[in-house]
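Lab notebook: predicted structure, single chain.

Context: the supervisor wants predicted structures on file for every construct in the current expression panel, including those that have not yet been purified. This is the next one on the list. No modifications to the sequence; it matches the entry in the shared construct table.
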Amino acid sequence: MNDKQPESYCDWITEDGIGELSCRMRLIDSGNYTCVARQLNRTIESVPTVVKVTGNVCKEGYFNEVGKRKMCLKCVCSGVSSLCHAADLYRWNYTMAMNDWKMKYATVVNLLSSKFKIYDHFEQVPKNTTPYYFLPFRFIRYQVGSYGEQFQYEISVDNSSYSKEEPDIILKGYNTTLLYSHKLRFIPNQSNPVAFRFSEISFIKPDGKRVTREDVMTVLAYIDTFMIRMYPVNGNFMPASTPMVMNASTDLGYHGLGKVTRVEQCRCPHGYRGSSCEWCDFGYDRVQKFSRTGACMPWEWHRAEYEKVSTSTTMRNYHYV
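Prediction complete. Output recorded below exactly as produced.
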């Protein structure tokens, strides 16, 4: 199928020299299907059969979300495909205490240029600054399965006169920064729940501009910075022991939380994999060129780029892995 072997939803048998392919077709399974016969060094291919799967109520390049609302959402697919449908995945979550030993901390150096300073221990954070929790591995990197899902935690404050200038959440990935600010005033001397969704309606950009679905999906494709603002209690900043919960998706079965509704499953081209084509396939590696999230190029391309640099007299600025 499009020069790739069909996935696990297809079965094929051969009887008396006749091959039969049987598939449970999905919207993203449209394409060119070819029968290939190989014997020793000889290969014969049949004329491609063009298959177009219909039934999508949304226009081309969009998919119908799961659930009651049935909105048509644009296929983002890391900018490399426009074929997708709603992923058949279940909801689950990550949970961790805010003062967990894996947590790091940060301060904002320049919000417009997305410059932050990271600290391994809270004692290292300088005074007279607004500290942030800097979330660890479990909550960052590949998180497209969290699109449309909820993140929640709790905050306690001394009084209601705190500054609203600093955002409560800072998300950054692929040179794109998103900010979330809790709209309601926190009630002093009690625990205040905070909840938002990983959706364009929750965030703004540092320059105040609106956020698109592509912006959110770009960040979720690989989060490198996830920060939560801290507030003083009894006049001091201290890590809280309250939990935070981040909803995500999994294909490992039902966990009692229902299905995700707005996660896309894309038909990825050669070199890409993942529900939103956010991973590079085996034999490929990412280069930060050609698109917002970069492009997955074969190792031979990387090797050629490395040789260009290694044979020059200038300092090496490219490393082949």
